[in-house]
Design a protein that fits this description.
Blueprint (H helix, E strand, L loop, with lengths): L2 E4 L2 E4 L3 E2 L5 H14 L3 E3 L7 H10 L8 E6 L6 H15 L4 E6 L8 H13 L3 E7 L3 H9 L6 E5 L7 H9 L3 E5 L11 H10 L3 H10 L4 E3 L6 H8 L8 H8 L22
Helix pairs in contact: 1-2, 1-9, 2-3, 3-4, 7-8
Keywords: NADP, Oxidoreductase
Protein name: 2,5-didehydrogluconate reductase
Family: Belongs to the aldo/keto reductase family.
Length: about 280
């Protein structure tokens, strides 16, 4: 397993995402993932499965310090009044005193960046989280985040071979911030892609494994594929025994020209556009 080391954090480059997994299934999948060797688990208040994830970790028999656990503050909890109570409730649900990474899940135009970042930094000072970061923040908002002096380690965003995140990725690298890729297989849209399929055939891998390998082979990129099927966990993890050639990467890089975004809720910010 490759690890990313950034600002004092050492994080497995491949983790488990739990979006859309209800509590019981989240618990089952997390238990299975941990037994397969996953040590990076991602959840969120909005997923309503923190208690399932927490129970899986607690019952796994694995030392809590060996698991990198991320959760995210819901956009409706970003105000000073609601922020810290929501974090304490997350810790209670997760059955832990501290998460490894606490993220702002989505920006909220009704709460100033300075207000929610002050609260995020305060949560870190209180020891509720070791590291802090954001999610779904385009470069214009990242400018405001960094202006607060916050030492964020990642921006978790949609990233896969079919979307163009060149502007955002370049910005993050320029500021020493990692990128955590959610929906790393475009919620299944990479399946059947002839370029990814052809490359995979050279290595005895499928389109999903090629996509995940393309991500983790990049500097300071992590991926958190979500699956509801335990048998897929091993496949997703089985990406560290081959390496894409420069030619393979160049071919995959061409796929971003279609710029397919699969996650774009009505409350999303103005995304970075790439000319």
């Amino acid at each position: 397993m490759k690890h990313i080391t950034i600002k004092g954090a050492t994080i497995p480059a491949l983790g488990l995402g739990t979006f859309q997994l209800e509590n019981d299934l989240a618990r089952k999948i997390t238990v299975a993932a941990l037994s397969e060797g996953y040590r990076h688990i991602d959840t969120a208040q909005a997923y309503k499965n923190e208690s399932g994830v927490g129970a899986a970790i607690k019952d796994s028999g694995i030392d809590r310090d060996d698991i990198f656990l991320t959760t995210k503050v819901f956009r409706e909890h970003l105000s000073k009044k609601d922020f810290m109570p929501s974090v304490k409730e997350s810790l209670r649900q997760l059955k832990t005193d501290c998460v490894d990474l606490l993220l702002i899940h989505w920006p909220n135009p009704n709460v100033p960046v300075t207000e929610y970042m002050d609260q995020l930094m305060e949560a870190q000072r209180k020891g509720y989280t070791k590291h802090i970061g954001v999610s779904n923040h385009p470069t214009a908002l990242l400018d405001q985040v960094l202006a607060t002096g916050a030492d964020i380690i990642t921006n978790q965003v949609e990233y896969h071979p079919l979307i163009n995140q060149t502007k955002l990725y370049t910005y993050l690298r320029g500021h020493g911030i990692s990128l955590t890729a959610y929906s790393p297989i475009a919620q299944g849209k990479v399946l059947g892609n002839p370029v990814l399929k052809g490359i995979g055939e050279k290595y005895g891998k499928n389109e999903v494994q090629v996509s995940l390998r393309w991500l983790v082979q990049q500097d300071s990129v992590m991926a958190i594929p979500r699956t509801s099927k335990t048998e897929r966990l091993k496949d997703n993890l089985n990406i560290f025994d081959f390496e894409l050639s420069a030619e393979d990467v160049a071919q995959i890089d061409q796929l971003k020209k279609d710029n397919q975004r699969v996650v774009n809720p009505s409350f999303a910010p103005d995304w970075d556009t790439v000319s």
